[in-house]
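Study this:
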Amino acid sequence: MLSLRYRIVVALALAVVAVGVCGHLGMTFLHVAPANTVTKEHGEAVDEWIYPEFEQNWKLFAPNPLQQNISVQVRASVRGADGMTVTSGWYDLSAEDGRAIDGNPLPSHTQQNELRRAWDFFVATHDSQNRPVGLRGALSEAYLRRIAVLRLDRNDAVRATTGGGGVLERVQVRSRTSNVPPPEWSREKVSTTPSYRELPWWDVPRDEALGGVR
């Protein structure tokens, strides 16, 4: 039997969790609801809460499902201990997520959606020349860059590139898109040659390069 003191602590903790859940559900409702007085006045606050992690869309019900394989890849520019700058090879982050999911009956939300949603977020806020469109362009760049830095750190890319110590200075992201081959019985002909969308090099802030993103 819990003492009165611990029961009060548990009750307060549950109250905080309940308020947080109700607040999140309210923000999500306002995000998907038709335009109204509240969203017109506080729409910016709602967007700041929802994007990019909690975005809602109707792609599950799209009449034309995606017929392409899109993989996100990254490479690093590293300054070694000798002061020389070395560029790494490309790391296929989507393939890494695919290997983590394959055969896993309970893959994590991060493995399934983090990278994919970050790329979708970037594409939705940039034009074909990779120039930001709208106010969320800078946010999508920072979000994608931080994911890339985290994944490079997991791969120990700095050490692998320089053979020892070094500092991550810049990252470059690209996508590799290839059409899904049609079934054998189909007469449809599609090109299987992949296409690439290569983004500019992004400088990595010093705190991120030193492990400040977790």
